[in-house]
Amino acid sequence: MLVCLVMLVLQVGGWVVLNQIYGAKYASFRHMKLEGLRLQRLSVPFVHMIHASRAAQRLPLLMFKLQRSVQKLYGMRNSGEKTMLFLAEMVGYGYMMAAGGALISLMMGGDATGLVLGLGLGILVPIALVKDLHGKVQKRDQQILMELPELLSKIMLLVGAGETVQRALLHCVERKGADTVHPLYRELRQTVGEWESGYSFQQAFEHLSKRCGIQEMTVFTTTVLLNMRRGGSDFVMALRELSQTLWNKRTSISRTRGEQASSKLVFPMALILLTVIVLVGAPALMMMNM
């Protein structure tokens, strides 16, 4: 019981002290916009813990993967600080789970079960946050891959009708509207904004490829940049070949999604079958016992 009390006091007191000392230094992390975070207001002590432990130098592979995922979801700007904020969220949940376990152990009269449970959740919850982040990235990449063949088909029609590539892209973005939340058109709107603000078309397209971070988008941007100078039938032919490849990729993704949906239905169907067996078999067993 004494161990649990000391642990709880150290955790709560340590957070309060660190928040008072480093609150001004890391105040910007409290106001940074990052969707899905729940502990951002409490993040200052955890950010200091990460800096003090030199986690970025000790775990470079983890930091690289997290930062790449954060860049895809939240953009390239301030990606280092956003990654640090996400890490602080992970540490914060682990910290709270451990403190909650210590509190439960105190309420149970010093039983170590609550403490063990809290420490276990303190490890599992941050891992679940990382898996959720990577799941969101995978969903975003699939959304881009599913929409890219349709975009390419529209571009081919417009270019075949006499439009330039820039005008064709601008027309596709305008047709979707500024309110769309689709990741592909969100990135395209940023690309249009870049070349309208002074970047060359080539630079804007290269930035588009880096932001999307998927191989198919890299192939798309490379094909457009290499063949747009030729124009005419050569350009349309190159886009048509790429379109066929992307449509095949979309079919593969649709098939995979269907298989995943079918596998998710196995447990509910098994539960329903068990319920039906119980409902049908229980009256028969009761009659046999009578």
From TrEMBL:
Compartments where located: Cell membrane
Main localisation: membrane
Membrane association type: Multi-pass membrane protein
InterPro entries documented for this protein: T2SS_GspF_dom (IPR018076)
Keywords: Cell membrane, Membrane, Transmembrane, Transmembrane helix
Coiled-coil stretches: none
Keyword Chaperone belongs to the record: no
Taxonomy, superkingdom: Bacteria
CC per GO annotation: plasma membrane
Segments passing through the bilayer: 85-106, 112-130, 265-286
Protein's UniProt name: Type II secretion protein F
